[in-house]
Amino acid sequence: MKIYNIILVFLFLLPIAFAHLRVGFYRRSCPSAETIVRRAVHRRFKHHRFITANLLQMYFHDCFVRGCDGSILIDPRVGNASEKQAPPNVKLDSFELIDDIKRALEKACPSTVSCADILILATRDAVALAGGPRYSVPTGRRDGLVSNPKEVNVPKSSFSVSQAFESFKAKGFSLKEMVALLGAHTVGFTHCSLVRGRLSSFGRRDPTMDPALDAKLVRTCGSARRPARNDPQIVLDQNTSFVFDNEYYRQIRKRRGVLHIDQQLALDNSSRRIVAGFAANGESFKRNFANAMIKLGSLEVLVGKSGEIRKNCRVLNHHH
Ligand code: HEM
Ligand SMILES: *[C@@H]1O[C@H](CO)[C@@H](O)[C@H](O)[C@H]1NC(C)=O
Ligand SMILES: *[C@@H]1O[C@H](CO)[C@@H](O)[C@H](O)[C@H]1NC(C)=O
Ligand SMILES: *[C@@H]1O[C@H](CO)[C@@H](O)[C@H](O)[C@H]1NC(C)=O
């Protein structure tokens, strides 16, 4: 009886939570939309496996700022700055993949599929290609009309778990959902400049870091006296860096987290049990990750007649 009531409440609330977003939104208006995206992502992934990480970080930075409205894709113009110029975004990559997909979609169904949805679908497909979960994702987002670098306030890697959770809680996430989303750091890279503060060669070694990892990172990043040139990249997952699996959680439990926030996740009393759970059960991680991604993808979206369907993901239509 109780369970029945809960299910009923859930069924009534679902359409409110995802107002106007629905799985297969383009089934009638552009039946080939999801296939076009999937093929383009697959073609690129064969030679550029790093697109999974590029797209995941882009998805997070799009959805956390003004919701998932493609605002991250707008290029700066003379007299118009854009989110791309905010410090956390300057190293984002793979915008050309979104452009390629948009061009193909404009040919098949002009002015129909939003750039915001392209990013959502392409990321979903790239995660699956890297070994991650396969899931259906609701579509029907519209593209936003504002992209302001001053609005970009994604959490910093120097944050504590409770500081990071403050920004996720404000968006309606549970701690478990935040821990699952950070599992995206199972792929991709960071840069020496963001990790130096934890290394023995730049001052004091962070005691929470495995000394063997410290030695390895010192070889890549150099020292305060002789820093490596051009800010080298470092993999976030020290074992299976290109595979979307739960190895990230196992590595941080071995003190092999690279970013401060990653290491803290495994140590903090509030999150370490969740980390242990995901480290022990890869299927549970993937299920929780997919659900949290769908939720992240539904934040503050524009639907119906709001916003627009951009013709070029880098430019607002009226600027053409
Ligand atoms: C507390 C939350 C988070 C913090 C503080 C954080 C911080 C960072 C930092 C500092 C980097 C390295 C950037 C660089 O060196 O250029 C990074 C990379 C990355 N982040 Fe996060 N992140 C967070 C949450 C997320 C979430 C929720 C996702 C996706 C669901 C995500 C996906 C990624 C990916 C895939 C990369 C690698 C990008 C690449 O190699 O292209 N992160 N993150
Ligand atoms: C560009 O600037 C104009 C006014 O200067 C503003 O109305 C518009 O929203 C800006 N474009 C973006 C993408 O923010
Ligand atoms: C690397 O990952 C694989 C697959 O999860 C695991 O079997 C292995 O023990 C890991 N190795 C290390 C050194 O962590
Ligand atoms: C975790 O809890 C233990 C006691 O249960 C306490 O001694 C320790 O300082 C706590 N650690 C953190 C990082 O809060």
3D structure, described in words:
This protein is globular. It has 320 residues and is mainly alpha-helical. A two-stranded antiparallel sheet has the order 1-2. A two-stranded antiparallel sheet has the order 3-4. It folds into two domains: 14-153 and 297-319, Peroxidase, domain 1, CATH 1.10.520; 161-289, Peroxidase, domain 2 (Orthogonal Bundle). Helix 2 crosses helix 5 and helix 9 crosses helix 11. The chain is built from twelve helices and four strands, in the order H-E-H-H-H-H-E-H-H-E-H-E-H-H-H-H. It has helices at 2-17, 33-47, 51-63, 95-108, 115-129, 161-170, 175-182, 211-221, 247-253, 260-267, 272-280, 282-296, and strands spanning 22-23, 138-139, 189-191, 233-235.
What distinguishing features does this structure have?
single chain; about 325 residues; mainly alpha; Peroxidase, domain 1; Peroxidase, domain 2; 2 domains; two-stranded antiparallel sheet; 12 helices; 4 strands; globular; binds protoporphyrin IX containing FE; binds 2-acetamido-2-deoxy-beta-D-glucopyranose; iron
Can you count the helices? 12
Assembly status:
single chain
Order of helices and strands: HEHHHHEHHEHEHHHH
The shape is globular
Strand order of the largest sheet: 1-2
Model regions low in confidence, pLDDT < 50 over at least 5 residues: none
What is the gyration radius calculated from CA atoms? 20 Å
Briefly note the CATH topology name of the largest domain. Answer: Peroxidase, domain 1
Helical residues, percent? 40-55%
Largest sheet entry: 2 strands, antiparallel
The average pLDDT value, as a whole number, equals: 95
Bound molecules: protoporphyrin IX containing FE, 2-acetamido-2-deoxy-beta-D-glucopyranose
Give the CATH level 1 class of the largest domain: Mainly Alpha
Provide the domain count.
2
The number of strands is: 4
